[in-house]
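Appendix B, Record 12. Input sequence as logged:
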Amino acid sequence: METFLKGCLASASYLISGSPFDAADTDLDDGESVVSTTVNNNYDKQWKTTTPSFQADAPRFMAPGNATAAAPLLCQSLEGARGSPPQQQQQTFAPGQRLGKQTVGGGWVRPLGYAEKFMTAAHGYGCMTTVYSLWLDSRTPLSLDVIKYAATIMYRKMPNLRMEMAERDGRLWWREMAREVVNVEELETRDVEGAVETLLKRRYDVKAGPLWFTRFIRLSPQEQGVRDDNHNLKYKYACLFGFHHNVSDGTTNMKFCKVFLKVLNDLVQGKEIDMCQEGTFAPPLQDRLADRIGAYFLFVYMFLRRLYTCILTFGIPVRNFTSRFRMPAHNEAATRMIHHELDEDATRKLLRRCKMEGVTLNSAFTAAANLTMYKMMAQKGGRLKNTDLWSSQAVNMRRYWPKEQQSNSFGCHISLLDVSFPTGPDDERAFWRYARQVHARLKYHLTESKRALTLQPMSERLIILIRHNAWLAWLRLPSANDGHYTVTNMGDLTHTFPGTGEEVEVSLVLRSVSCHFMPTLCQHTLQTFRGRFCYSLDYYTQKITKENATTYAQGIMDFLRYAIHAPN
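Logged structural output:
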């Protein structure tokens, strides 16, 4: 005990005087250039940028299968040396021919930010691999080659896909890959969710890249289509995309999905492909804003508090649940997924009711998640009156950026907002009153206290919790947790990723992230896609049994259906 307390004090001293509050930690030195990836920060002139001057006409190339002859492929080559203008390299591209390899970049970009450092360190313990699953309906058969073409084009269009890491002056920096590498394979399976759970275990070589991959699955026999409800012939496929969480977040990945589907449709139809780069690999402006707030003592207090509640007391905030539902610590630590959705009619009614009650769908879902967990605990037995349920809400930190810099800014720009919700036996009978309380508390911390921004520098230090849980899992001991669950919500994807296309369209989107060593019991993943509310529960096998996870996920969906017609 004495040794642990001394360690806490030493950590606090380091946090006050060390790199978390060093203005140079996420900054660029004078005179250094950024490779076509930065955003001019009007609020902080310490971010030095040089923007390459691209030609007015974006390069294009002809898709495979086009009836025309070979067409030129032009692509910008971005050089990292100061003052070197972007070069154009021309390649001949003919239908049926592989895209030629291309040397692009290799220049230094910028140092890693707080969250990026955390994601990188956590990945060393098998966490922070994100997998997106797209179920494709195509009017024409698709081949692995066309998926490879599309993936190669995505590599050239989205700058975050070209990132790797290297050490520079004792710090980790982003650097653009010097050679083009695209990881695309076909999987012989029709169990998409099982493939996702396997791919969540994938590790990346962060210093060699690439930090993403593509997997292609045929869901119907080769060259055999199926008839939909309108008797149209469709060919069924799935594309799985994996991303290291340090180069992407939900906003970035949804943009990837939108552009990929557009590229795939253009390839299938033989159209010209717009090779203009999509957006920028933006610097973490939230780090600079957090440093400027300078809430050092609050930061140290919250850091030591989490060490105490999560490690020293073996997860006292979640003991109301874990004392009733023992963690299956003997299981191998992994992330598993359970998927549910509401149909279009139920989704429309639920959204209308949320609007009537003055809450967001995210707040209503959080209320349902809390009340379902409370109900499970109450039914398990033991005395339970009022108790606190702890939630970690994933926050898109671009909300705190200047408006003109928020769009098309790629990378990992998220943080977690930790909020507790007092919950009692009367709240189930007054769902919408409770949902309004949840909404008010979330809104306060997002707009008033801005806790997620204030505590942004703490993110990289939370690797101690990941490391601790990894050791406990290796020893087959119960995990240390200070939160019941995490919520990540992409909202309504109607404009972000509609999923429509003339030849190929997406019928379902699933997201999952390997977070089994995070200090929460599970993660809720939400979005509304093509009019349907889609929900998946990522549960961690060494923390919750499959049976309890299934009961929890189904209970939440039942609560949401009940809430549509629940009294005020």
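The two ends are 50 Å apart (CA to CA).
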